[in-house]
Amino acid sequence: MNKEPKPPLSQSPDEPSNEFILEVRQDLDTEDQSVIMELSPLYLERLENATQQGIQQGERRMVEKMLKAKFGEVDGELSAIIDALLLMPPLDMMQLIYQLSWEELLARVRNEN
After folding, report:
1. N or C, which end of the chain has less CB nearby within 10 Å?
2. pLDDT tens per residue across span 17-51
């Protein structure tokens, strides 16, 4: 029996092979190359923005978890000071959360703003 070579597992039989994709990319005309060069900085900017948003969300979740660990829950008043806590140097923020009572933490953060 004559069997055709099977495509890689990640490639369906209808998808172009990597070799074809490379050939297409090599055949780009000057206008297409220009468009790609103009879009590249935009793509990198959006990627950087998405990365920064992910970092900020992760930092926020970390602060929420520290508050929850210390106080049992994050009520509306604690939620209201999270943004202010995130503006502090991380070590200062952690010391405030772990050393102060709920009332002291709220008062301290509110007074600093």
Report:
1. N
2. 545 444 445 666 777 777 777 778 888 888 899 99
